[in-house]
Amino acid sequence: MAVSHLQCRECQAEYPLEALYVCERCFGPLQVAYDHASTVGDVGELRRRIQGGPQNIWRYADFLPLAGGPPAPSGRLASRVGLPAGCTPLIRADRLAAALGLREVWVKNDAANPTHSFKDRVVSVAVARARELGFQTIACASTGNLANSVAAHGAALGLESYVFIPADLEEQKVLATGVYGTTLVGVNGSYDDVNRLCTELCAEHSEWAFVNVNLRPYYAEGSKTLAYEIAEQLGWELPDRCIVPIASGSLFTKIAAGFREWTELGLIAGAGRSSIGGAAPRQPRMNGAQAEGCAPVASAFAAGHEVCRPVKPNTIAKSLAIGNPADGPYALELARHSGGSVDAVSDEEIREGIKLLAQTTGIFTETAGGVTTAVLAKLALRGDIDADERVVLVITGEGLKTLDAVRGTFETRTIEPTVESFQGGVAETTTV
For the whole prediction, is pTM greater than 0.90? Predict the structure, then answer.
């Protein structure tokens, strides 16, 4: 197996592959380490093995932290157990590009996952690892999408689940969680309060697998599959730039890690469009996106700081409302090192972003996607994107989860059931 051990991101101390998440020496976060010696070989054969795999994230099992491989038979039938995630569309968005004066924009629409967000990727990996470790109960702290996914995966696999959410979460996300029969707990407070409670409960209930606490090192690895899919769908090439929402910062950093891992293994065919000559593929510029009402990473980036100052969230983009992001410092480092940035947009810009994406691509995104689209528009207006760049916009959730964000943004014309009423009430007002 390629997965080797857990390693502290700060002091590099090594730990066994158990339900651990913080270093005992320096209290730094733990991450999964791999030994790809057995994976490296004929690149063409490795690509063929990936392409011959199942139409879900388990086609990338060689790069995920499971001791026993995919949770089902090998080959194209792998992981027909539970709710397999991944293999979501990468759509060329020419009308969006034209609207922004750009040459080439692609939209990675992860709303096409089973519970309509990218969280199905991370939960699939975390729950598979939880089962390997013998857990029968799963739990999470969530801003909404993770709640949907944990509840659904628990139902599909017959696992007891506990889901903790801020009590003021969007109604659509609450309904789409409780329907699965989970134990749903609303907490009076912000997501940071919920997360702190779950960290305490994790110590009290060692028999529970909190996917984003004691299983976090494995959980976070699921986000790398977005990078793998993007590269594969682009013909084994890198994009020049990725626009990714930032909540905790984990998705942002893990997408970059996935690109870097495949580059080092030789799976990436060539450099991005704007690279020079025959040099080794450079990594994409990574642009993070936050809402102004919860922008600790964007604020730190603008101020030139290396750490984030915690904030109290106040934004319609509740799925990004993490005031004290665990991976904030790593997100800052990545944005600067890659030549990208971290920007924030207002709630009104978020609504406009949702509308822009919908009206140019036919994709209806939740507020987090409105954030990324609005940041893309800001980068284009600012002139940060070169004319020959290939840009990928990552959309992480479905618009039906945040309907209130678009309420009042369009008009419904009501008429009588007659041709005359249509001609007088609609046709004449819409004809130029």
Answer: yes
Burial of 203 (0-12, 13-18, 19+ CB in 10 A): exposed
Where among 192, 221, 250 does a domain terminate? 221
Contact call for residues 399 and 351 (beta carbons, < 8 A): no
User: In which residue are the tokens 């959410």 written?
Assistant: 165
Compute the distance between CA of residue 222 and CA of residue 206 in angstroms, rounded to an integer: 23
Report, in angstroms and rounded to the nearest whole number, the Rg of the chain calculated over CA atoms: 22
Per the domain annotation, does 52 fall within a domain? no
- Backbone φ and ψ for 25, nearest 5 degrees, come out as -90, -50
- Quick: pLDDT tens for 332-363: 999 999 999 999 999 999 999 999 999 999 99
Angle between helices 347-361 and 367-382 (to 10 degrees): 90
Q: Which domain holds residue 149?
A: 119-221
Residue 211 lies in a domain: yes
Same domain? For 327 and 391 the reply is yes
pLDDT digits (tens, 9 = 90+) for 395-425: 999 999 999 999 988 888 899 999 999 998 8
